[in-house]
Amino acid sequence: MGIKMSWEDFARSMGVEPQILENKEARLLKKFVMDLKIPTHCQGCQGLDLSNPNPVHHPSYELTPACNHDCIFCYSNVAVKLGKAPKPGYYGWENPKAITVSQYGEPLLSPRIVEVNKMLRERFPEARLDLQTNGSLLTEELWEKLDFDLVMISLDASTREKHLKITNADTFDAVVNALRIVGSDESVRSVVRTIFMPGINDEDIPKIAELASSLGVDEMMLQPLTIHELNVERLRKAGLDFDRAESVREFLKAAMEAKKYIDVRISGCQLVLYQKMDHLTLFSARRVARDVVPLVKRERNVT
């Protein structure tokens, strides 16, 4: 008859103290993930359903592939260079839960932004309208003409110098002003959208969170970096730590730091997956996000 041993006694019989087998950081990360909320932008998205074998993003209205920024990580830039950028128009279906304006290019460059905003509001009165912008062209005057439910403004640096290095545009003050405009408007959900680029903007992320919070911004949507082939050399020159960029643990630790200052959230499709993982799997998980060119998986309806 075998002798039953507790796992603690078994560990000691192998010469290992039990506490060594317990990964406290892993449990802390797991608790953090379980407490996170779905980003407002992701609510209603197909990606939240893990049983869906081929989920697609919310519908979008694309205005222009052009942009006044030239970010070192940008997928839209890659799509333009490879001739794969979507043409202007509505990409989606009838009765959408949300529509994003837009996922490619800078929508505020288009003279049609106010017109399209009004058209979408009239055509899809039940849909949440999300504006995704780099914020550099948003003024008080323009904001008064727009009508969105949520505004995501991209900011990946906490200083003018770092912002210039990442975007190749000297627009830091204008972006901060845009965050102030939307942050002070209680009728809209304001979000600062930040990409995790270890080696480039690690120290900036909590500072961005603190800055955005001080301006009244409601939420930070922290996203991991997808590395597109055409951007590899630019990212390398900027100092990207490619190994850490693929670590889920490093990404979540950055989110935890930002959480001290603002309501930080991570992409909903990632969150539901991470919440299913046990703490040790989560601790060692890697997100290998390499791509050649982003593609729109929704049909275009000319509008």
Automatic annotation (TrEMBL):
- Keyword Iron (UniProt): yes
Boundaries of each Radical SAM core domain copy?
53-265
Keywords, A to Z, come to: 4Fe-4S, Iron, Iron-sulfur, Metal-binding, S-adenosyl-L-methionine
Q: Tell me where on the tree of life, at the top rank, the source sits.
A: Archaea
Q: Per the record's keyword annotation, is Iron-sulfur included, yes or no?
A: yes
Reported cofactor(s): [4Fe-4S] cluster
Name of the protein:
Radical SAM core domain-containing protein
> Which organism does this sequence originate in?
Thermococcus gammatolerans (strain DSM 15229 / JCM 11827 / EJ3)
